[in-house]
Amino acid sequence: MSDFTEIGPNRLRRNSLGLVAVTFMVISAAAPLTGVAGAMPLAFLLGNGTGIPLTFILLTLVMLAFAAGYVAMSRHVINAGAFYAYAARGLGGGMGGAVSVMALVAYNTMQFGLIGLLGGVSAGVFSQFGINLPWWIYSLIAIALVGILGYRQVDLSARVMVVLVGLEYLIVFIVDFAILGAGGAEGKGLAVNIFDFSALSSGSLTAAVLFCLGSFIGIEATTIYGEEARNPEKTIPRATYLSILMIGLFFVFTTWLMIAGTGADKLLETLGALEDPTAYFFILAETYTNPTISMIAGLLLVSSLFAALSAFHNYIARYSYVAGRDGLLPAAFGQTHDAHQSPHVGSVVQTVGALIVLAIFAGLGLDPILNMFTWISQIGTLGVIGMMAITSASVIAFFAKRGDGSPLSTKILPAIAGIIMAALFVYIFLNYGDLTGTTGGSLSWILPSLIPLGGVIGYLLAMRLKSADPERFATMGQSQA
Fold it and tell me: Residue 391 and residue 224: Cα distance in Å, rounded?
């Protein structure tokens, strides 16, 4: 046994994650290469074009504003339930229960959508090597591997994530610096003004914000690993700020160079001419480096999606564990594995759920990307944004009860972040059909309604607990330090 690892009965594996491990496990959910190759070309085309780098600068500031209150509360509440625990301690057990089930719905749908995306992308990537298998085979393999990692020790998952995310950054930086070294398009493309506010408001700023915000989804999970981190009072705040800055600066730098690689005046024309805009990064890679780098980037895109799948699986398992421990779910969910100290019950249940969803979509012959990914994953984005808004309110309420804390970090900045997140939640909910291609059908309102429905179910579970065990209800989300 490691000197740094504390084993106890029915508890998560203490002191097993350091700053680097927590940071990279969080960034793996944001899937940097997936964002660059998959989301950014669409952000350019459907959003505000050359205004994307500045959009990332502003969103980084918004996320830092959210983090100010988030990390202030993390010093007082160390709990793997994260959003749930903060809501319970700040706004009461009823709201805590609501957020708990909202989190399970959000992260499960994010996971299910990514399973489809990984299958579709893998089928395309490996076909160039003469390997032609149905997309669902790749999804099935990923579910099995993610399930094994989730069932075992968290530090095993952490080591895998550090390697995969490190390779993602490396391949993107190779392309970035190749563009930088060449001076961009025709040797003069680096003259892109990323502080051009007229570009910020061109096209659809709202669409740009939604695409860019998706690149930050996952940074909230630093607190999920609070019970397993070494010195969590310092590690979790540092990992939160470090994750936001690494993601924000990475995308500002990379999107600037993606624009420079084609030229600001030709960006939208070039993207519009592509049959598949998501091929844009790989075209840049082949143009400024060589076909081998482009091929490696394709393989790493698959590993990027796998890393994101593993990250969300860990989130789901820990939320399930805390809900079981606190009495919202059956007690079996609140048990940890005797040897691995992992939340293995939630891990197994999530794996089974993923297999069922995969079987439904594959059995119905639906497209893994246009249907399974696009329809479902936005539910997760909607849920996380909603939980961020609730958490911002929870921070304000928590410190108001205590009567301490800096007004800037516990009142002003959380209020700003909360208002922005609440506005985004309403916009996505009302325009879900347009954003996911489900306009005109019942799915356009059924799918986003799963988040508030989860909230109602969670609230009712909390009220049942209050009636059955008032003392346990009163301690929902308490710190496990």
Answer: 14
